[in-house]
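Two proteins, back to back. First:
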Amino acid sequence: MKEFNFSEGEVLLINKPYNWTSFDVVNNIRYFIRKTLDLPKIKIGHAGTLDPLATGLLVLCTGKFTKKIDEFQAQEKEYTGTFTIGETTPSFDMEKEVDFTFDYSHVNEKLILQTVQKFTGTFEQIPPVFSAVKIGGKRAYEFARNSEEVKISSKTITISEFEITNIQLPVIYFRIVCGKGTYIRALARDFGETMQCGAYLSALCRTRIGNFELKDALDIDILKSIIIEHTNNKSSPII
């Protein structure tokens, strides 16, 4: 049975629930550990934010391992998900209601695969307005939620693998391997614009960060039950 030492440092792989923010997960587990193990000063952070409507792998670091967060965030990431074409939303995902609709009768498999090639490699991407990108000390989403116009500079990103796994128009299924700073919501926007039909991100799951994989991640309740089991096992103390 694994022994934890949260103060010295642990890496926890969590399967983030739908409609939870990454901070919700961190705050929930921090509170649980503090209360259950009487560790009022325990530090916990996450390596790479997932949007509330995304699911999948969230890497948490505790104690002294929080110093590894930047290292983990910089690692390659893998995602699966879907684009829905023929419509757009202000947030480029399902957080906001559809604002425009477009004809997509010209879209076929050939056009989709040709468009994939345009978004494979290293190129410039403008992050979404509804994002945590900092502009003059404020997050971009703070401007967006106040209906304030703001200009966001493009960033260089790398998508090393972009695979279409299924096509059921208006839904396109994908798998993407990318580098740090890639916004899949922004990719949905650009993908739809390039095909002249609009698109938004309708599902997203992170399946890998570096060598950490979703298959090894735990649901929050399962992690909590493991921690409780350890606390009740005097031969395997948790500190």
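And the second protein:
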Amino acid sequence: MNHERKAWSITVLSMAITVGCNGPETAPAVRYGDSKAVETLSADFGSTDLQLIAEKMVTSLLESSAIRPDGDSSRPPIVSVARVKNRTSEHIDMKAITDKIRTTMIKSGKVRFAATDMQNDLMDQYDFQAASASASTRKSYGSQSGAKYILAGEIMSIVKTAGREKDVYYKITLNLVDIQSGVIEWADEKEIRKGSTRKLIGS
């Protein structure tokens, strides 16, 4: 009987220790950081690279004379943006790059963007309005404004490793094409080089 009680006590003590180890004391400490701070956790493509690309490319495009009003309109021209293509060996959120560039350009007030990545939503809305909206407010197919330009590009990388050293070279290229003429009105590229050193085991 004493043996059984001793075994039971040991079991209960072990469970208490296990619960204690997995309690609040081991929960991760959460903190907010500066979204603009330089990210240096690894040589992989990160948030700082995204911000550098958007700032450099948008500044270059808006300072050029490539963007002009469509016809006699005084309103900013409409641009259709194609998702930047990933030519690297990494998984990179290309939509995040495209969205960042588009948002930065819209904030400048010098361009407007066609909602090409929302076509399915637009079609659903047209169908809904055709069936439910009043004739005076109904919007229909074929009434969208045509874009004057299309903005497209790609990102590529070259990765080299030697021992514990890793060097990554990124290059993103963007082109602004006049849809009517097919002429590339503007092109620019942004280069980024990053290096990292892998830590020794146990260091």
